[in-house]
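Possible regression after last week's pipeline update?

I re-ran a chain I had predicted before the update to compare outputs. Posting the input and the new output here so someone can diff against the archived version. Not blocking, just want to make sure nothing changed silently.
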Amino acid sequence: TKEDAFRSARPPSTRQASRLDVKQTSSLKPKPKNEDLVFGKTFTDHMLEIDWTARHGWHSPVIRPLENFSLSPAVSSLHYGMQCFEGMKAYRGMDGTIRMFRPDLNMARFNFSMARLSLPPFPEESLLSCIQELLKVDERFIPEGEGYALYLRPTAIATDEGLYLTKPTSARIFVIMTPVGPYYPTGFKPVRLLANTERVRAWPGGVGNAKCGGNYGPTIESQVEAAQY
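New output (post-update):
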């Protein structure tokens, strides 16, 4: 099954999560109101970052203030699409408890996508533990109310510097978070869909079952077409 395929990419468990370093910001952002939320526009104060090299393996995870990366314009993720991501959510229940929706399957699919791109696997339990710590640091951003959540975006990119096409020798996992409400401006209402058979995302032997960044950019043209109906 698809779930079995995801799980087959799991690496053995290690102790990366126990080496987690937390560096909190000294300048907190104002917490946005639910009615002001636009999907993916407002981000929390912190991010999770974990670097990897073929020589040293996974470095210690770091939770630090959200800030821009400094990367070479020659990194392979920018030229050859060697990047993938997950979409996860954390919810605040009516009892105040913070819950995530089947995060173990997100971690399994994340490793499956990474393996498809020859990116290094990360122990799922350790990464999930680091994500849970990130949630604790920025818990105040988890909105209350039905239909509202904190959206998490775990992402993996190859960071090799060079225009050669080969298996990555350096990579980075990072996680950013954004409080969200309804994805569509119309709210929680049915939407019309356009089925397009000219632009195909998935095919036998392809990457349609992995959340590669390159799967999503080509869909914008179809979205523009659909908006005309």
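Follow-up from reviewer: compared with the archived run. The chain is about 20% helix and 20% strand. Marking as no regression found.
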